[in-house]
């Protein structure tokens, strides 16, 4: 079992602590949080070992799970990597692309592994349809949240939209050609609602909307490709796959047949992929353990996290 320690005991940090504790692939050694009052409360309530410093925690583990505010990701990661420790780092990977590139270079130098916490890659609904999404040419995403003061220190693009940016970049195997975007600050000092249009060199277009001032939550993505429409509801963990194929010569009474202006007939049918029963955060942490133990490439690489941040910054620079 890999010895793991968590940096940061906030909302998400506590979830990571709980899941690492129950995982069969990790031994949870303990945690550190700069907020001594919060840290002691978590230690008293759950019984996790509280370390007095970041360095003491890093020295005691094989894997450092970084769940601190984004501004401190770079410093925490550098401390861990230079001591030969593997790092799991929450999204966004760092505050700047330069910091992310620095981490990537150090990981290669010290021959350790890193994974970024883009958890929607492990969403059961997305896993169920991932193989069906092949060459989408139009993608539409909506990620809406009710207002929560937590996270408003960064633009909504880095808070919410970056999830969908990573999903799209993992699917569209083409370079970004052009980005146009707009964002508006309503409650915070940074944009609370944003829309971006990403055009890729292969012709695919993605239209992304993110808001943290909505009256209801929504996390949906729709993918349109040749002969197929695929929708993913990340919040409800549901998906829908609608496909088309050449119509049979003698269709049945209940077959859905479409005929275009040229007289070509297509049959519409619904595919209902099985949605796995998995905990997304536990799965991302355990696949990282597998990558370390088997010396394989992590599912969400530091390169993936860097590119998602790069595109996110390109969108923010449009505002």
Automatic annotation (TrEMBL):
It comes from Jejuia pallidilutea. Residues 3-118 form the Gfo/Idh/MocA-like oxidoreductase N-terminal domain. Residues 156-216 form the GFO/IDH/MocA-like oxidoreductase domain. PANTHER family: BILIVERDIN REDUCTASE A. The lineage of its organism: Bacteria, Pseudomonadati, Bacteroidota, Flavobacteriia, Flavobacteriales. Gene3D superfamilies: Dihydrodipicolinate Reductase, domain 2, NAD(P)-binding Rossmann-like Domain. GO terms for molecular function: nucleotide binding. It comes from the Bacteria. This is Oxidoreductase. InterPro entries: Gfo/Idh/MocA-like_OxRdtase_N, Gfo/Idh/MocA_Oxidoreductases, GFO_IDH_MocA-like_dom, NAD(P)-bd_dom_sf.
